[in-house]
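Sequence in, structure out.
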Amino acid sequence: MPQLLKTSRACPISGSEQGYLVSEKDRHGQPLRNIISKESGLIFVDPVPFENTEEFYKTEYRKSYKGVHRPEPKHVYRAGGNALQRYERIKSLVSEHANTLDAGSSSGEFVYLMKSRGFRAQGVEANQPYAEYSQKELGIDVAVEPFSEFRTEEEFDLISMFHVLEHLEHPIRDLAHLCKSLKKDGVFIIEVPNILYPNMAFRNKWHPGHLFSFSEETLSALGQAVGLQVIDCKPIGDGGNLWGVFKKCQKAIGEYKKADTTFAEQTLATLRRASFAYYKNPSNYLKIFQKLAKQGREKRASRKKTAQQILNSLYL
């Protein structure tokens, strides 16, 4: 049995302050403690490494993550391809001309795609340089502010959140706030990294900006804790990401299906087994070459093109 620890902050799903140590270093070898909650099995960074999380994401995150304050053409091309894949999963869930909000819209590729398909689409993005880039280069409607400050009189048929939830210091608070703008029976789509994905080295799973790490069970439980009905939650693609489909319902915030008492220990054991199995899979040693080839294709396809030219070539 792993040693039980007292955390400095409570698990947002269960409220428990008891957990087991998962990792003490981030992917760069710097100190970063990740804990798994004994009650819910949710993995989270403890303590939070930022003095002011919202201020960090407003100004510094993109620079620290990608080394730039505005996306390069290859980044736009890659994000545009991802947006197309997400649209294929979403299009059957919403009616024609639905009103949509992309929460954490980044440089705006998904909002631009939804507009090109005839939807009413807008975004909200906390990172000021990326939000201003999407406004200027793509001409889309984006609110430049953290979710906690987002206010609107509109109601949305669909709210999407792609690779954002894991970065939020207060996920229950922010999701509940966004859900106020979701129509009754509206759809909330959430995509996050799958912490149990076996084809990633254990040491690479721990990113200083990823304040939470989700499995299918904990992503579902978080949605239920906010008052969302779980329609679907599963790995997608090669299994590296989770895709959650939720609907707004009247269940009170704080209700969720409690995990089995051994769930946290089982999750921890799965992570440890996968850390050894990773190095036995020959295909994992070819990833660097595949990544370099992909980057070469992205550079060639986006060279000397504006953001709109890149996306129009993909979308139209």
